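Data availability (excerpt). The following record was deposited with the supplementary files.
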Amino acid sequence: MFGQRRSASSKEIGSLVGAGTTLVGDITFSKGLRVDGVVRGAVRCTEGEKGGILVVSEHGQIEGEICAAHLVVAGTIVGPVFTSELVELQPKARITGDVHYRALEMHHGAVIDGKLVHCGDTARAAEGLKSASPTTRSERPGEAMEAMPAVVVGSSA
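Predicted structure:
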């Protein structure tokens, strides 16, 4: 019946990095994560290519690698992006880094400063997620990266 089918945009978001919060370190999440604050480190979905949605709100910022099946961006990302399903870029979205995607929805005003790499089939997109190194971080010139602890967010159900 009506309303019984769940779409990609209705996936459960069970975790939140709130406005005014800054996390330094890698985050691993399951199902869904919304970022309204700042994350300095990689953000990866434990389900990899099978599921998981990451939402970066208009005030959200992530500096690090992103790995998720579905990504919705209204804020800022600095780092490579790997998705196996869909990337949705809202009008104020800003990405500095290469974007690996299967499907892309980009609204007028969104900006990508990097390469767009289309992964036409799920196998190629999944391979991109798997090949994304868990220690990959972009270094700014003259800035040494130090080891960052991992932060695990979400339920273990």
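Summary of structural features: The longest helix spans residues 122-131.
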